[in-house]
Design goal:
It contains 17 helices and 11 strands. The protein is of the alpha/beta class and about 350 residues long. The protein has 2 domains: about 140 residues, Rossmann fold (3-Layer(aba) Sandwich); about 140 residues, Alpha-Beta Complex (UDP-galactose 4-epimerase, domain 1), CATH 3.90.25.10. Helix 2 links the parallel strand 2 and strand 3. The radius of gyration is 20 Å and the shape is globular. The relative contact order is 0.12.
């Protein structure tokens, strides 16, 4: 007897990324066939292969490659690349989606997406929302989380290995969602897009916390002293460059940190989106910390301690980025009258009812 899977095949872009790979895994667990778009066949794509995904190499800036990759799929999770020309990728995606007649798109956006934001990436995300919403005959759902848990816990190795927890956001608060909870919401939306079409969903964690509050939970999980301290921006910029973070990403993050300090991520948080859409509450922060603390890069081994010690001591000697010079060199458009979202009447009117 041949069993036929009548569930629609779902396309996932950014499939090796932090939310993308979780979306792939969760869709497969629920029995949906998945075509995962990857940049190249490597160890990360091989992990998706082993899960049962169909991995396809495609350039997200090439309309023919994207249209070919979409053939035979019915729904899509679109995760825009964090790159200066991301808007071109979105135009390619929209053109290909129209050509193959996709039925539904869940687009990953951003809580701070705004037409007048100082971050080019954030302004482009706002434009992408408009582009996706304007595709005729396609059920579009906007998934717009705020500042992820991952943005804090990507530094957990310093806490685990050196007893230090650098903080960029001071005592301002957020209810940050995990990658896994964002993916759970995305999967629920992809499973039933007609029910949610035309709506926006911002998944959050269950509790408002400052990074100093988080440090207390990290101490508890690690069972060792952790010194939390405000990290100067110049030092973070050098550390980020040392870890291979691009100038464009760092340039965007400087504005998100300011959004955080001004209360943009506390606004409207926490909410019940994760539980209402998925039927289960969001993960608590301690559970997420335990997962990160168990990851290979954070384990208390001699090799990891040595690596962390060397990296930490290299930071003062690593050159930072000339972020304004980068924008000029690459002819990136600069907003003439930029507004952070918490002071934008337009943004607040668009988001206050969400």
């Amino acid at each position: 007897m041949i069993l036929v899977n009548h569930r629609p095949k779902i396309l996932v872009t950014g499939a090796t990324g932090k939310t993308g790979r979780a979306v792939v895994a969760q869709l497969l667990e629920k029995g949906f066939p998945v075509r995962a778009i990857v940049r190249s066949h490597d160890a990360r794509s091989q992990r998706l292969d082993r899960l049962g995904a169909e991995t396809v190499v495609a350039d997200m800036y090439d309309v023919d490659q994207m249209a070919a990759a979409m053939q035979g799929t019915v729904r899509a999770y679109y995760c825009p690349p964090m790159q200066p020309l991301m808007i071109q990728s979105a135009a390619v995606f929209v053109t290909a989606a129209k050509a193959v007649k996709l039925e539904a798109i869940v687009g990953l956006s951003q809580w701070t997406a705004s037409a007048n934001h100082p971050s080019l990436h954030t302004r482009q995300l706002w434009l992408v929302e408009q582009m996706l919403a304007a595709i005729p005959g396609i059920a579009y759902v906007n998934l717009n989380p705020g500042y992820f848990v991952d943005n804090y816990l990507r530094l957990i190795d310093f806490a685990s290995l050196l007893g230090l927890f650098p903080i960029l956001t001071g005592h301002s608060r957020n209810a940050p969602p995990s990658n896994e909870d964002i993916a759970r919401v995305a999967v629920a939306l992809l499973m039933n897009p007609d029910r949610y079409a035309g709506k926006r969903f911002r998944p959050t964690g269950s509790k408002l916390m400052s990074a100093y509050d988080m440090a207390g939970i990290i101490r508890k999980v690690l069972g060792s002293p952790v010194f939390a301290f405000d990290l100067p921006w110049w030092m973070f910029e050098r550390a980020a460059r040392l870890q291979g973070v691009s100038a464009f990403e760092v340039g965007s993050l400087r504005y998100y940190v300011e959004d955080h300090k001004q209360g943009a991520f506390e606004f409207g948080a926490p909410n019940h989106v994760v539980e209402e859409v998925t039927g289960k509450p969001p993960e608590d922060f301690e559970t997420i910390v335990r997962r990160y603390a168990s990851m290979p890069f954070a384990r208390k081994t001699f090799a990891n301690r040595l690596r962390a010690f060397i990296q930490f001591n290299l930071v003062p000697f690593t050159p930072g980025y000339n972020l304004n010079g980068f924008e000029r060199q690459h002819f990136l458009p600069v907003q003439s009258d930029p507004q952070f979202v918490i002071s934008s009447d337009r943004w607040q009117s668009e988001h206050s009812l969400q």
